Amino acid sequence: MSRILENSEAPKLPPWLETRYDPRIMIKRLITSVDVARHAGVSQSAVSRAFSSNASISPATRAKVFEAAAALNYRPNRIPAIMLSGRSGMIGVVVGGLSNPFYALALEHLTISLRDAGFQIMLVHVDDALTFDTALDQLASYRVDAVITALAVGTRETARSLTELNIPAICFNSRIIGPGISTILSNNYASGSLAAHIMQEQGVARPVWLAGPTRNAASRERRRGFLEAFSARQGTGKIVTELQGDDTYESGFTAIREYLRQDHRPDGLFCSNDLMACGALDALRDHGVFSCPEDVMVIGYDNIPQGAWHAYQLTTFSQNLAALVEAATEILAKIFSAPAARISQRRVIEADLIVRRSTKRTAPTS
Amino acid sequence: MSRILENSEAPKLPPWLETRYDPRIMIKRLITSVDVARHAGVSQSAVSRAFSSNASISPATRAKVFEAAAALNYRPNRIPAIMLSGRSGMIGVVVGGLSNPFYALALEHLTISLRDAGFQIMLVHVDDALTFDTALDQLASYRVDAVITALAVGTRETARSLTELNIPAICFNSRIIGPGISTILSNNYASGSLAAHIMQEQGVARPVWLAGPTRNAASRERRRGFLEAFSARQGTGKIVTELQGDDTYESGFTAIREYLRQDHRPDGLFCSNDLMACGALDALRDHGVFSCPEDVMVIGYDNIPQGAWHAYQLTTFSQNLAALVEAATEILAKIFSAPAARISQRRVIEADLIVRRSTKRTAPTS
After folding, report:
1. A14-77: which CATH architecture?
2. Does B235 touch chain A (CB under 8 A)?
3. How wide is the angle at C-alpha B110 spanned by C-alphas B106 and B178, nearest 5°?
4. Residues of chain B contacting A129 with CB distance shorter than 8 Å
């Protein structure tokens, strides 16, 4: 039984729809094909055909329609085509926190790429006040052709909703699977391993892992790669200290400030994202005793623009947004070429290591 | 004569619409009201009425419909309502560069606020490859109810397009006017004056203004307020040095690095936005001779999260996103309550001064 129908009342309509029968708003706001037909002295169907590239219409009639359309500032209406075909050309894009520059830039890349492929974007923001399932209901009612999300929407319920509603979905860095659900992953485990190997080469003996929220599947994989690479080299003893953050700058700053106050002296710090790494670098600078990279090397993840700022010069993993977005549009193309197939692709995109000052030690310190 | 109709060929259709007559794609992807009606043993019109809060239907029939809908995972289709009412419940939101955290956060606030008011967002990104007018055509074809933009779209052509297409528009920090076009402005001139007064109180004698792109109307007003306040106090002589940036971190860093290399010794710097101010602070730190705030005070604009980071601690003007977005939704309410009125509101929102370390001098230096 679906949520929306759990009580016997009608679903709540948004205000703009509530008033749709109000005669005061039934004014003609936009020029319609009927107006163009009247102005051109042709049938309404001729107007529709004039604006369809594969319909039969004489050049003279088309010219007449275009002239009338220009005079009236008419724009073809896509809504009837959506009704006829059941396809809207709209892709639902579900985002969470845009305060992380990585997600803002990912959205920008995606928006440009989908636009260039001829799609429109219906943007939905999911936060505590709105669950992903509620967002899905809204997107379904507008008949979006597919949903793309960068949220950590790993629940079994979400996968079931997507499958039940039969909306193809593409999820970034998520672990949900199901018919019609594709995932595009950054190679988080391998990146975690590489971070560990870089630190080992530089003689890091007191490594620290600064985690994102535990619900973040990408963070869990980065941790696993980092810890296993240290264990493999050093034996099975636990040598990596684990600190907990929440993916914000503030959490990185606080976690490292507190750790240093307890007189710990880390010499290598791998942060689950760049925002926390910038906070960690500021905590190190404020503390004053340590300096980076001489005493402690720092590695982040995401390659946000701020990591390249002169105050940070952070070594990090670039998630290669162009490749992530290209994979998404390729999967969309597959979805559209075989709409009945319930495409479930899985793509892994290598992250590129961007080396900056934060790991440029001249010699090992231990 | 409109762009779209300048040649005599049919307008190019996006790929998904090109193939709408292809029988292969005419499969039934989503459950329709016809399916629900058949399953419930009622008419299709009964299904529509069951999902409309102000239609007449018996409780028993509605229950039957809801049961069938739940069994089939049906979601009401909003597309027919869009056709009937001419109102889509969609607001077109036109954005430029999301790499500026201010615009990313403004988009987030707007998305949440419009969602809570019952609207959906159609997101369009305008860059060099796509003009605002082309974006407008796309939005018009989807019948968006209004357009909100934070772009500096100050051309007379843009205003004419909006008016011709009869799409109500709300523009942030823009100077375009016209029937149906509303503007919401930050109080840029007053903020520029206040920045000058703060510097004058601290004895700043060699003030510098770091400008954004000249097409940016908000930057021009901030400059005017800053320069006029200095002129009023110091006489008509030009005492403010003007440097040119382009609103990016890099341009702020480069402009100030070059200025310091020429042996200039500014003691007050007002930047048209925070990104440039962060770049300027890093250039000062790298230069090493000066320190902020002892030798030079720095003021930015926008209150991006990075300005509060420990490496910057930037004094800045907060544009009060909550107030800007609230003004936008109030104007939308007016537009919807009187759709024929061509609402043209103008709202000015005071910016709040956020004082941080970058202006906390203990005593005047000159």
Report:
1. Orthogonal Bundle (1.10)
2. no
3. 90
4. 112, 116
